[in-house]
Design brief:
Helix content: 25-40%
Number of domains: 3
Structural class: alpha+beta
Cofactor: Mo-molybdopterin cytosine dinucleotide
Strand order of the largest sheet: 3-7-1-15-12-13-14
GO molecular function: iron ion binding; oxidoreductase activity
CATH topology of the largest domain: Aldehyde Oxidoreductase, domain 4
Keywords: Molybdenum, Oxidoreductase
Number of strands: 33
Largest sheet: 7 strands, mixed
CATH superfamily of the largest domain: Aldehyde oxidase/xanthine dehydrogenase, molybdopterin binding domain
Number of helices: 21
Shape: globular
Protein name: Aldehyde oxidase
CATH class of the largest domain: Alpha Beta
CATH architecture of the largest domain: 2-Layer Sandwich
Pfam family, one: MoCoBD_2
Length: 801
Amino acid sequence: MTARFDGRHGRWVGASVPRREDPRLLTGRGRFVDDIQLPGMLHAAFVRSTVAHGKLAGIDLSATLAVDGVVAAYTAEDLGLGDIVALLDRPPEEFSPTAMPILAREKVRFTGEPVALVVARDPYSAEDGVEAAVVDYEPLGAVVSEESAFAEGAPLVHDEAPGNVLVDVSMFDTPGVDAAFEAARAGGGRVVEVVTKSGRQNALPLETRGVVASWDDRDDQLLVRMCTQVPHQVRTAMARSLRVPERTVRVTVPDMGGGFGQKCVVGREEIAVAAAAQRLNRPVKWIEDRREALTAGFLAREQRYRTLAAFDEDGRITALDVDVVCDMGAYSCYPFTAGIEPLMASAEMPSVYQVPEYRVRARAIASNKAPTAPYRGVSRPQYVMAIERVMERAARELGLDPVEIRRRNVITQFPYTGVNAITYDPGTYRESLELAEATIRDEGWYEIRDRATAEGRHIGIGYCCFSERTGYGSGAFAKRKMAVVPGFDISEIRMDTTGSVVVTSGTMNHGQSHETTLAQIVADRLGLHLDQVKLRQGDTERIAYGWGTFASRSVTIGGSAVSLAAGKLGELLCTIAAHLLETGSDNVRLDGEGGVVQVDDPTRRASFEEIADVAYLRSHLLPKDVEPTLTATASFDVPGDGTFSNATHAVVVEADPGTGQIRILRYACVEDCGVVIHPQVVDGQCRGGIAQGIAGALFEEVTYAGNGEPSAASFIDYLVPTATEIPDITVSHLETPCAFTENGAKGAGEGGTIGAPAAVLNAINDALRHTGVELDATPVHPQTVLAALDAGVHKEMSIPS
């Protein structure tokens, strides 16, 4: 029997059909957490630490409880909840496990850490109750930088983490590293060293975190409605913290206004609110305000790379030696741990290049800052920036064109197993690079740059060539030695008597159009109309288990599980239809019109409605070995090392030496994410990701004073680009179908963010190439450019003639 109607490009897959979410969301009929109103609902607010590091000498909530409207107030001791503990199965010298209490106990570790919970009849009374709380601190020295974390006698953020090191791994050290560097120094090659840094960022989803929790005595169940990318992980961690069976916690997710990775970890505030709802037997709501989101929410990025690279005289890289330090803030995030950034960087640092020898040491340090969570790209924007700056520096020192040195080093033969023990599936690494260069060259930007130089203007062209491992399977996560190993996804599909289907997925939509794209896959697999497919997500009661949405896994893993489930249902439909048509099961196929036809006589046909009528309403007509149901379940896990999308970004910028302003004149992206399910959605993913990458390259940064006070408490202090600062972006698609996924797709969610910082930084340096200035850190603010130019002038003036 044939249970697949179309191939990977079918009637729906590959078409930019109208997004099914749009009518609801664009007309204001979406339902987000803050839209939920329940009878008798109370409101929560948190008393937060005003110091970055200190002992809790005392918490007095008596005045809080006296505030009109306040119903209850809790400290850690009052709630008695279990801590959140994220673990790696690594030896003590590589990993220091630390616990994150739901509310701070004994001491606080960052400004904004929740110390107490206030519950009131309205949000205003709750805030008044917070203001009335009295907390005494015994301040301790704050760790706010790599230097202060490693300083002799530095205060410890956690006693369990000596030297403030949470993770210290040396995953690779191949035998020929030292010899390669010696050969480069002795021969006609070069050894280049680049130190790159990236600033701390906030993911800034449009919708901040929020939760509405209520206890149902009749069902003996805590219903938690919240915006999270990982509802099943929240359920697991929450049940453990509350010390209740998992069946008593149900997590549901309504519409969600973005996540970008910030919501794919388990937060402590939601657990505290759930505990209060259980104790009070009343619904309790908490909505994070923007100040909390900027200062106390999960942050990201802050990393430093010292990269040494050896090249031979032909410009081919012969060795990499890398030291990575990631500032993870005060706590490990659950379930990924503080290892998520350094382990990602260590494993994938060689990027798209053929590196024969590789050594890396990567550390995660604790600091008195808000903790770090994954943010779109997870270390890849940083290690890509490091290796791309290396390529630029080597090209300059060897007298090569920046594109040519990449061309000589990029992977061209697939499958390719790298020095990092990762096997890369086929991609268009060189093709994307050459198409991006051709785009810039054909549009005349090289001539424009040269004319501008003659006129005293500063225009530069920058490239970034990279790959993105997408849809990490359990094998990839297991290599990190995580105690909790994400990977697979499960889907169930159910057909009703009208021939329509409801399909579930353990992924979680927060702006990626799952309702449309996953339905396209199902519709093609069964030969249904798109309107006959309904997607259900975000309910731990209805979906057996799922790992949610992160790491570009929704279409690769979730979409493959959905496709397999639809295929199984198709086989069942064919089995029943063959019986009804009185023919063999090998003599029928899905016909693409919502039914099954006989291969040797296409006029003999059984519609899905007829099959469903028998399956449910006249089950006595079913074959003896077929149960009266039209449901199927399937799981999918990416085999081996997974699959890799790839892209090249090309950027043209102009730098104003008088003001330091950087203006992007042209942005072109050539990407390959395998089979494109919905071109318009993929283009949107690329452009949105690039906008966030530009934000990290030029604008956004959270800094801290020496006492650990964060600089950015509002959008006055945290600079976010608007549409005016984001250029028009052209996206061109190459297509290398993935052999590992059911639909031929690779991931597309993070590539834009990964490539933009390096491409923009390279373009800035090209624009400033005649000034002697070279920048290796982001974000590049106007004052950064001016200070560098000023320093360059003073340096030239100090050189004796």
